[in-house]
Amino acid sequence: MGRSGTGRKAARGGQGTGAEAPGRERPTKGARTRQRIVGHATLLMYANGYARTSIEEVIRAAGITKGSFYFHFRSKEDLGYAVIENASAYILERLKEALKKPGLSSWERLEAMLREIQGIVEAADCTRGCILGNLALETSHDHPGFREAIAAAFRAWWDLIASHLEAMKEEGHLPPDFDCQAYAQFAVSALEGGIMMSKVARDPGPMRTAAKLVLDLLPREVEGRVPARKSRPQGGRKAAEGPGTGMRPRGRD
Known about the structure:
Order of helices and strands: HHHHHHHHH
Number of helices: 9
CATH superfamily of the largest domain: Tetracycline Repressor, domain 2
Largest sheet: none
Low-confidence stretches: 1-22, 222-253
Mean pLDDT: 82
């Protein structure tokens, strides 16, 4: 697929590469240069897209020579794979960290993960959307390799959600026959749609509504029984009015 190298580190907070985590071996000078290139390319493609980001812009932003760039990457397409991997790894790590937060219930960890997604998008004032979603829309037709890499990134995202839901099911928080994989795919689809609508509207409301409904539509096991699902009138739910508000279904502790 034209990728070069492995073990790429995600850009910290969307701001390029950061310091190595404690206990990790310090990367070589060449590895740090490569990380810097990928970090700046990620920022540029997040802001401008793949087609409108040139190799020359990446070279200038990273402060390297053309020879240094081509030492690490054979082509712009090669760099594109690295950017997808970088963005995917960064988002997935943020979600994993949210699920590991101490002192939270299973429901609260799920909510914390959704807030992480909101935070990444809202940090850019909802003007840039999701970098993976953006690249999927832009490149899927002409770059099947990119499409496959992005699809794998989304699968990793919903596999993480499904794994958490399976744990909740084992704890008795969800019905025994609940389809965790199907619901996780729905959750990612709903969130990506909400993120896209927030980008178009320049308003976090659609994304927050999607996140709220992802939680609200989960069934809950109460005293060993699944409560009957009541039909709800369309449009009867109110979107969250601010960051972190209105996301938890009523009655959950």
